[in-house]
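Sample entry follows:

_____
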Amino acid sequence: MSKYLVQATDYKPRTPTEKTCILCLTTKPAAEFLLHPYITTQGKRGVRLESRCNDCIKERQRERWKIWAKKYPEKAKIVKQRYAQKPEARQRKRVWRRDRHLHLAYGWTQEQYEAEYREQEGRCLICGQEFAVLCIDHCHATNKFRGLLCNGCNRGIGALQDNATLCQKAAEYLKCRSI
């Protein structure tokens, strides 16, 4: 038997819900990787998973901070004091990240998001509950906007692979199996 046949039989395809971190080389669930918005040279927008897991990213940030803080102790002390005194700075950074994500992933502005949020009266289009923040639901094939959903409903649709047939089967299953 040739080495190619052995390799082919040993091949185990990864499910799309998993990814291998390039630093720690462990395969983890996709939820443990940050979403990374991108724009191609042709102008196509999309979102992909970061190549490093959240744990490795946090560890690297800690290491870099420790090195910098040892090199510049006075500046590190000032940064810590400012950060502790200004919780609004953290909020500004969160808002900036959200704006950047909306722009890169969907081509939206915060004003467009807020207008859609007001039009839906802050309610999820599936469960109808009111939320302070709603997720943008979009078709992964065309990247077209479908509506604003709560995190639970958006993840539920994603878990069912955006497949209407699977959603209907899940609904039928819940109806006939309800206790």
In short: The first strand starts at residue 18 and ends at 20. The chain is about 50% helix and 15% strand.
